[in-house]
Specification:
The protein has 235 residues and is mainly α. It is built from twelve helices and no strands. It has one domain (19-234).
Length: 235
């Protein structure tokens, strides 16, 4: 399992001929999940002693939602959104790429343009949703054109290594928006977002090798796990 992951990270391929049963895929996914949790806890524990800025996103959500709603939003809705944005299109398909284009547009509009939160229902929410839906529809029409679809498929196969690395880096580094956008936090960005980078490398592998549902479920379980620990620590 670990060898397959390392080999994939060193030389990512869009299509893997992984002859594994569903049972073995589940076992491998659980093993990778445990590795990810252990790594994340180690990094988080180390940061406790070195540098620990406030996670503004977690604080904002905790203030706006009840524990049950927070588990629903943080443990189900946001993981689904992020997996569509950063992992779904690792296997090229016009509808996948259109959905990714729409959710990525929503992400950038929310974080960089309107300086808002993904789950915040403020006065910009409908604008963000409307623009994202328009992008999905236009992108699907465009990407489904035969000549464009063929060109994208060739590009995906030829440049998949960079596409995979970009998905990992963007997933991790965009999480810097969870913190105050200060100079010191940007300096610490590679360390602050290291758990997300490690998570993205594993999620990208499981998405390509096993299917979209595997990294999605792991992402949901991970978020629910850490949110539950937060509730217990508050109690």
């Amino acid at each position: 399992m670990a060898r397959d992951l390392v080999n994939f990270i060193k030389s990512p391929k869009e299509r893997l001929l992984v002859e594994k049963t569903i049972k073995n895929k589940i076992y491998d996914t659980i093993g990778l999940f445990l590795i990810k949790v252990i790594f994340s806890v180690m990094v988080a524990s180390l940061l406790q002693f070195i540098y620990k800025p406030e996670n503004l996103t977690s604080t904002s959500m905790a203030e706006r939602f009840s524990p049950l709603v927070l588990l629903m939003v943080g443990g189900i809705v946001l993981p689904l959104f992020e997996e569509i944005t950063f992992r779904l299109s690792l296997r090229f398909n016009p509808i996948y790429f259109a959905l990714t284009s729409g959710t990525f547009t929503y992400y950038i509009l929310t974080k960089a343009v309107f300086k808002s939160r993904l789950s915040l229902l403020d006065d910009t929410f409908l604008y963000r949703i409307f623009i994202a839906i328009i992008i999905v529809l236009l992108a699907y029409i465009l990407y489904s054109r035969k000549n464009i679809k063929s060109a994208l498929e060739r590009g995906w196969k030829k440049h998949f290594r960079m596409i995979y690395y970009f998905s990992c880096a963007s997933f991790a580094w965009l999480h810097i928006f969870n913190f105050e956008l200060s100079f010191i936090n940007f300096l610490w960005m590679p360390i602050l977002t290291l758990p997300q980078l490690f998570s993205a490398t594993i999620a990208g592998y499981t998405r390509v090798a096993f299917g979209f549902q595997y990294p999605l479920l792991v992402h949901m379980i991970t978020n629910i796990f850490f949110l539950s620990i937060t509730f217990l620590s508050i109690d």
